[in-house]
Amino acid sequence: MKVVGAALALNTTYILNFILQEFYVQVIGKNNLIKSGSASVDISQSITDEQVTFSTCLKPLFTKKSFNMAQWCEFLKLGIPGTMMQCAEWWAFELIAIFAGILGTHQLAAQVAVINIIGLIYMVPLGIQFAAAALVGEQFGANNAKQAQKFAITCIAFGLTVMSVIIIMLIVFEDWVASLFTKDEEDIYYIKSVLKIIGLYLVADTIHGVQSGNVRGLGKQGLASVVTIVCYYVFGMPIALYLGFN
């Protein structure tokens, strides 16, 4: 099925992921609610008890509040810019893949391999991003700006520490990493050429990824989405095309 099969596999994976998560929350969570014996247990007294915590936090999927337009507007003010922050980056990578195909098949193969490597490694700053959003947002909401700042800096420092180890491993094992995707010598040559300089990108991407979580915690998605779009499409994309084709 070639490209169609790849698209079907990707969509099936995402859909099953959603279904299984909902099954766990709606079915297993309700079982936990029955086993715990009470739905009114104080959360502060049950943090270490998975069943009680889950039963206490479990809410219906839809309620009257779900259709409150005022709350929807408040949510969308943050949700749409937050989505644009993420999509602007994804779309830029997809466009770069198209332009890489113009350079040639070997360049495109190397681009696809590198994008997969970056996508896998990005799971590190992405996970830290979620933690940063929660930690910074909680402290900022409690008017504890200094603690929010400490969490923000700590998350960035932790992300850079982990990424430094990954970059070193990429450099040391570049032959093995490149050979995971292809046996073609020319493809491997291009992949290794990019791996030599990808460390600089990964450092910047780690800071950007974690900072995106800090920005979400502060509720500044609107400004951040504009900055992201300008950086990628006003500066980044033109520079990439100029350097790639000259």
Based on CA inertia axes, which overall geometry fits?
globular
- Secondary structure tally: strands: 0
Task: Report the β-strand fraction as a percent range.
Answer: under 5%
Structural class: mainly alpha
How many DSSP helices? 10
Low-confidence spans: 33-51
Q: What composes the largest sheet?
A: none
What fraction, in percent, of the residue positions are helical? Answer: over 70%
Mean pLDDT over all positions: 83
Instruction: Calculate the terminal CA-CA distance, rounded to whole Å.
Output: 36 Å
What value does the Rg take, in angstroms?
A: 22 Å
Give the count of structural domains.
2
| Topology pattern, helix = H, strand = E | HHHHHHHHHH
What's this, in brief?
This protein is 83% helix and 0% strand. The protein is an all-alpha fold and 246 residues long. Helix 4 packs across helix 8, helix 5 runs parallel beside helix 9 and helix 6 runs antiparallel to helix 9.
How would you sum up this structure, described in words?
- By secondary structure, this protein is mostly helical.
- It folds into two domains: 61 residues, no CATH class; 179 residues, no CATH class.
- It has ten helices and no strands.
- Helix 5 packs antiparallel against helix 6.
- The longest helix is centred in the N-terminal third of the chain and has 35 residues.
- About 8% of the residues have low confidence.
Give the topology, please.
Layout: H1 2-36, H2 50-57, H3 69-103, H4 105-121, H5 123-141, H6 145-172, H7 174-179, H8 185-195, H9 198-218, H10 221-245
Describe the structure using short key phrases.
246 residues, mainly alpha, 2 domains, 10 helices, globular
